[in-house]
Every structure is written in C-alpha cells, then in structure tokens.
Amino acid sequence: MTMSANKFDPPSAGDPISPKCSVIEVRVPELKRLFNAIDPSPFHDKDLDPDAEDFMVSWAKEMPRDVPLALRVHLDRSAGLPNEAEILRNAIHKHFARRALAVRRRLRLLFRIGRTSLVIGLGFLASSIAISDLLEIRLSGSRLAAIIRESVLIGGWVAMWRPLEVFLYDWWPILAEARLSDRLATMPVQIRYHSHDTTDFSWKQDWPVAMTKESPASQSPAR
C-alpha cells in the first residue's frame, strides 16, 4: 500500500516517519544494491553492503543520541511487490540486530581479556614490589641497586597499563556502538519511489529470491 505526505511528494510505502525522527536518506537504483552481492543467504537474511552499512552508521553517529532514527530509501523505480517495504525493513532490522549481538560478543571478549590481563598485571606488580624490596635490603646504599629497583617498579606498573586501558577507556565506545545498532535495528523504514512508470517491471530483477506472502508456491492446491 502506497502513501505520501501530500500530493507533491513521490509515492511511498512502508512505515510512517514521525517528524521527531532523525532521518537517514539513501538513494539507490534498486533495493538489492543495499545488500552484499556475494552473500548467498536468502534475501531476508542477507548482510547489508559494507558501504551501505558504513553510510547508515556514520550518518546515525552524527544524530543526537536521544532522538529516534528512521531510514528513508529513495528508489529510482516504480513500486514492485506490495510488501517490499516490509521485506526491506525486516532485512535491515535483522542485519543490525545481528550486528548488535556481534558487538556485545566483542565487548564480553574484551572484558574477559581485561580480567585475564588484570590478574597477570597484579601478579607481575606484586612480584616487582617484592623484588624491589629485596634489592633495597640486599644492596642498600648502592646507586646501581636504586636504578634497578626503580626500573623493576616501573615495569610492574607498566604491566597494569593494559587492564587499566580496558576497564577505563576501551569498553564504552564498544557499548555505544552496540546501543547504536539497537537503535538502527528498530528504526522505521520507508521507501519513496521516484518513477511513475506503471509498465516498468524492473522490480522483478530487484527481488530474485523474495516472494509475496501468498505466493503460488505457498498456497495449498484447491480441492
């Protein structure tokens, strides 16, 4: 079902977009250009094309975090399947939902590495302090001993650099990326058609594996 804000707007289909949304605008000649051409998965499970994904993510990062996102796809052809906007929305939502899961797995792995690094760093720091104290007892008054002792202490604190980096700095950009993917995975998606040619059937090549909800293949034979 098509819709438009007023009679001067191109015909459109899909989700209504609230004026409060920050809208990501994309223009393509055909919808399959948004998806990875070498991905053999069915259309609704395909990954987005890396360039298309980077474009959407980069645009979304420039938007305020407290404003809902929306995607408007400007399509250089007339309307095709009656539910193609729904198919497109579901495919985009699934892609960013998978991306959010992958980012959170990366965050869990980072914390695992951070915990392991923290145990190693604390152990090395404790050993460095013990060695430093031993050197101070055995070689007190020696300049060489003081240099070695300070070097060992510095080495112990340097060993704490990696866990401190993980727990102070590295985790929050990854969490922000996961939250951004969550927002992209729930945004409304709308298609605007920039062709009114009702004899244009190029959409059939645009959906090589997509089928309508009540396709002949899914219908049971009449009795």
Low-confidence stretches: 1-5, 208-223
The helicity comes to 40-55%
Please give the count of helices.
Answer: 5
Major sheet summary line = 5 strands, mixed
The proportion of residues in beta strands is 5-15%
Mean pLDDT: 83
Number of domains: 2
Radius of gyration: 28 Å
Strand order of the largest sheet: 1-2-5-4-3
Pairing-aware structural class of the strands and helices? alpha/beta
Tally of strands: 5
Shape label:
rod-shaped
Series of H and E elements: EEEHEHHHEH
Alpha-carbon distance between the termini?
A: 31 Å
What is this entry, summarized?
The chain is α/β, with parallel strands linked by helices and 223 residues long.
Description:
- This protein has 223 residues and is an alpha/beta fold.
- The chain has helices at 50-61, 84-138, 143-158, 161-184, 203-206; strands at residues 2-3, 12-14, 22-28, 69-75, 189-193.
- The relative contact order is 0.20.
- Strand 3, helix 1 and strand 4 form a beta-alpha-beta unit.
- The protein has a five-stranded mixed beta sheet.
- It is 50% helix and 11% strand.
- It contains five helices and five strands; from the N terminus they run βββαβαααβα.
- Mean pLDDT is 83; it is low at 1-5 and 208-223.
- It has two domains: 2-103 and 186-207, no CATH class; 108-177.
Topology of this protein?
Elements (H helix, E strand, L loop, with lengths): L1 E2 L8 E3 L7 E7 L21 H12 L7 E7 L8 H55 L4 H16 L2 H24 L4 E5 L9 H4 L17
Parallel strand pairs: 3-4, 4-5
Antiparallel strand pairs: 1-2, 2-5
Helix pairs in contact: 2-3, 2-4
